[in-house]
What we know:
This protein is mainly alpha-helical. Helices cover 70% and strands 0% of the residues.
Amino acid sequence: MEIPFTVDQFYGVFRDYNSAVWPAQWFLGCIALIAVAVSLRPRPWSGAVVSALLGFLWAWIAVVYHLAFFTRISPPAYAFAALSLAGSVTFFWQGVFRRRLTFKWSSGQKAMFGTTLIIFSLIIYPMLSIYAGHPYPSTPTFGLPCPTTIFTIGLLAFAVPPVPRSPLVVPVLWCLVGVQAAFLFGVWSDLGLGVAGIVGLGLLASASRWHRKMHP
């Protein structure tokens, strides 16, 4: 597949984005921490709050990153924006309006994977980017597609069954798209998307089993 932009242009988009939206990166990071904190001590309204925060993050990816910046060098970014916006709408629809998403931290294998992905997205991902020679502002910060996808799947690992399948679809699809950046552009931190994609597929399979059980 022929890439319509150079490696320099790819990292240049991160530089332009980070410079333009500063200090919004801190705000986006706070959104992630609030979502984690609300999941730690769930209340009747917690699922709606976490879903709204995830919906906001995916809308941010669609509008502020893809449409405002990535479309400058990549026409397919319009499709990526539509995909991200669909993910945002799904979180608002399933989690806020239908109240079908509930998050609760618990023990077990799913919790271990979820915790690892969340820590990776917020702490290890930016450290790996710097180590690979892409310091700020020429690095994907939280709120951009790849680290946010890893965080989203990590948080969905704490969703209480039965979990609707639709909120998992866009993050899993983005894992397939985004992991290519590790090999094409040397964003080695995006290898975490491979692990997140496997976890996401496992969660999707589990959600499908619940769906078949409830609708035989």
